[in-house]
Specification:
about 220 residues; alpha+beta; Jelly Rolls; eight-stranded antiparallel sheet; two-stranded antiparallel ribbon; globular; binds zinc ion
């Protein structure tokens, strides 16, 4: 893929991913990023080789880009699913499209509020955290919030900006619990992203707090 990706997961995040200790929702976003980012794929391959070396194993590392979260709906069940004609078939990262049986243009968006839609992605039974697709209309902003843990946001379409800079397709924002931000979607095209958090976000504004029980974010 020839896209220029400027924002990548932190080294510690990739290390946890390679070690298999990153929680499921965060690992799903890293997997999606790896499907778009050759640099990080190589990084994870190297880390897995180092890990295997430390364990005294000569077994080759398994390709990281195919690691996907388990969920009740097995992948095999999706192989016979009808192929849906899609306008931008590559905009939904393949691991997410395959596991959840979705296409970029077939996401069943649910309206959260003016100019904001989401679609929650199911996690394995008993897994904590949150994984969802989020669509923000042109120029719209999300309520400002902090985090109870790590939050990973991967841009799939359009762009957004916050206090830390601008994020475009393929860019991944790796925010820990110290970051409080207020993302604003691109004024022309808006933004679609895949977002995961270890724990629910902490909204600061009244609107955010009112929305929280409803959105589960
Ligand atoms: Zn990367």
């Amino acid at each position: 893929m020839s896209e220029t990706i400027r924002r990548h997961p932190e080294a510690a995040t990739l290390m946890s991913y390679a070690a298999g200790t990153l929680c499921e929702p965060l690992a799903a976003v890293v997997t999606a990023h790896l499907s778009m980012c050759e640099d990080c794929r190589h990084e994870v391959e190297d880390l897995e080789l180092i890990g295997a070396g430390l364990l005294g194993s000569l077994a080759p590392a398994v390709g990281p880009a195919i690691r996907i979260p388990k969920r009740p709906l097995e992948c095999e069940a999706l192989t016979d699913a009808p192929v849906v004609e899609r306008r931008r078939p590559d905009h939904l990262p393949a691991p997410i499209a395959q596991v959840y049986g979705l296409g970029f243009d077939t996401i069943p968006w649910k309206r959260l509020g003016p100019g904001v839609w989401h679609h929650r992605l199911e996690l394995s039974a008993g897994v904590e955290g949150d994984l969802r697709l989020l669509k923000i209309g042109p120029g719209r902003e999300m309520p400002d919030h902090g985090h109870g843990g790590s939050e990973l946001t991967l841009v799939l379409d359009g762009a957004y900006a916050d206090e830390t800079g601008e994020y475009r397709r393929g860019d991944l924002q790796d925010a820990d619990e110290d970051v409080e931000h207020r993302p604003v979607a691109d004024k022309i095209v808006g933004c679609v992203c895949l977002i995961a958090s270890e724990r629910p976000a902490r909204f600061k504004s009244i609107v955010g707090k009112l929305l929280q029980p409803w959105t589960g974010m």
